[in-house]
Amino acid sequence: MLRLGGHGLPVGPEAGPQPFARAHVDFGYGAAYVPAALTAADSALLAEWEAAFSAADVMLAEIGIWRNLVTPDDAVRRANLAYAADKLAVADAVGAGCAVSYIGSFSAGTDYAPAAANMGPEAFEAAVETVRSLLDTVKPRRAKFALEMMQYSLPDSVDSYVALIKAVDRPMFGAHFDPVNIIMTPRVYWDNAALIRECFDKLGAHVVSCHAKDIVLRHQAALHLDECQIGEGVLDYRAYLTALSRLPRDVPLLTEHLSTPADYATARDRIFAVGDAAGIVFKHRR
User: Fold this and answer.
1) Which residues contact 142 (CB under 8 A, 6 or more apart)?
2) Considering the domain boundaries, does residue 42 fall inside one?
3) Whole-number Cα distances in Å, 104 to 5, 14, 69, 101
4) How many Å apart are CA 212 and CA 62, to the nearest integer?
5) Residues of 133-158 as b/e, b for ≥16 C-beta within 10 angstroms?
6) CATH no. for residue 53?
7) For residue 273, what are the β-bridge partners?
């Protein structure tokens, strides 16, 4: 049984944990993003969030960090790492699967902007030390820390993620998967099912959360790949859902980057339709 989650709900987290959890069930979601506004300082509120979502049987999947953790600006890097530590502590306190971020960029003043230094051996070592330091500082017991694979920062491939996990050598370092982020050539674009299978073959034991979107190759003079609504690109969702369903534990799939509740409902229904055709059951499916 798979757990789909995402945005597009009629109420937001400001409604409180119980109404927000109920809204997920009513929308057909079995997983949820943890609101980034939650902080580790409010332990009583975090306990309420865990209890409300547990009672609704909605998995708290991930909290986003999305800060540049390796920027050369020392003051900014320290602030970003403190923010990351707080969000990892929140994820651990509510029993979420992970706190996730991109590693960032060596281009100061940016989040994960392209830079030649992002891909070199120094970047790999910086990623290793950053992940180790964050995990050793927070010491999470339940939530893992994960990095999202990106086109121009590490890890930028399945193999580079495998190498990073081995180098970090911490059991609470998990893997995050979004196949759209690492489709970077026409060959992979047209055969993305092979990429999906490779990820789960090599990283399946480590994957803690996944994102759902789609990708389209534009006919232009230079290679141009864009995100698009699910079902309007070429991502092989049958292969994706099948690989997820074969994991021996719940790994949530979360929609993102859409504009309206109607867009999220469309994405949800298209994923459900692929699942129906493949004989895959979703928690709280509507």
Assistant:
1) 91, 92, 95, 96
2) yes
3) 25, 29, 5, 8
4) 14
5) ebbeebebeebbbbbbbbeebbbbeb
6) 3.20.20.150
7) none
What H or E segment, with its residue span, contains residue 175? strand 173-177
Whole-Å CA distances, 240 to 63, 143, 177, 275: 22, 24, 11, 10
Residue 126 lies in a domain: yes
Residue 205 lies in a domain: no
Q: Which residue matches tokens 């399946």?
A: 204
Give yes or no for a contact between 106 and 72, defined as CB atoms under 8 angstroms apart.
yes
Q: What is the pTM of this model?
A: 0.96
Domain count along the chain: 1
Q: Is residue 218 part of a domain?
A: no
- Spell out the per-residue pLDDT of the chain, length 286, in tens: 999 999 999 999 999 999 999 999 999 999 999 999 999 999 999 999 999 999 999 999 999 999 999 999 999 999 999 999 999 999 999 999 999 999 999 999 999 999 999 999 999 999 999 999 999 999 999 999 999 999 999 999 999 999 999 999 999 999 999 999 999 999 999 999 999 999 999 999 999 999 999 999 999 889 999 999 999 999 999 999 999 999 999 999 999 999 999 999 999 999 999 999 999 999 999 7
Residue numbers of the domain that contains 159: 4-176+257-278
Q: How far is CA 149 from the centre of its chain?
A: 9
